[in-house]
Amino acid sequence: xxxxxxxxxxxxxxxxxxxxxxxxxxxxxxxxxxxxxxxxxxxxxxxxxxxxxxxxxxxxxxxxxxxxxxxxxxxxxxxxxxxxxxxxxxxxxxxxxxxxxxxxxxxxxxxxxxxxxxxxxxxxxxxxxxxxxxxxxxxxxxxxxxxxxxxxxxxxxxxxxxxxxxxxxxxxxxxxxxxxxxxxxxxxxxxxxxxxxxxxxxxxxxxxxxxxxxxxxxxxxx
Length: 222
Description:
By secondary structure, the protein is an alpha/beta fold. It has 7 helices and 5 strands. It has helices spanning 9-22, 93-107, 127-132, 135-144, 159-170, 179-195, 206-212; strands spanning 32-45, 64-77, 82-88, 114-118, 145-149. A 5-stranded mixed β-sheet has the order 3-2-1-4-5. Mean pLDDT is 89; it is low at 1-5.
């Protein structure tokens, strides 16, 4: 009797749960929202950059001033081509709880249930809501949220990572002196992409996974 040593039932269970969720039709009352976050270093200029000239890019001085850090949360609903952002000073469980309340009350106030795809960071739990809000408020939010976790080492299954990579290339690559500027710039890009209904055309399905990642599936061959 033999089995594939890389087989990981936990990985498979989470992966197929997320992939099946991606295949469901659009339902505005039960939106699928991919969630991710990234820590950012806040950097201010010591000298004004030289302006852009014809045939010449903007030039920065190598010296800069560190202004601390903050955390950027990204919410992405691929089927609607909609995204939102929220900047917080830190990335604690309390910050996660406020991000979830922002998702429920500000971004999707009319949704019955929001199905959230997120990774297994230790702050990404329902317990974070109870550690931050009164029990009644935490329960209200929990009843509106349905968490679907990507597998450990499988965060590439979260489409928010793809969306975040766009922000990294277009917006976050620049020096941002403070949290307010970062959030303003990220919101401007989010609004532009929302107007264009930019989205991700996800092609990887459960059937594909069972072929391409078959080494992860337990084998019961004798």
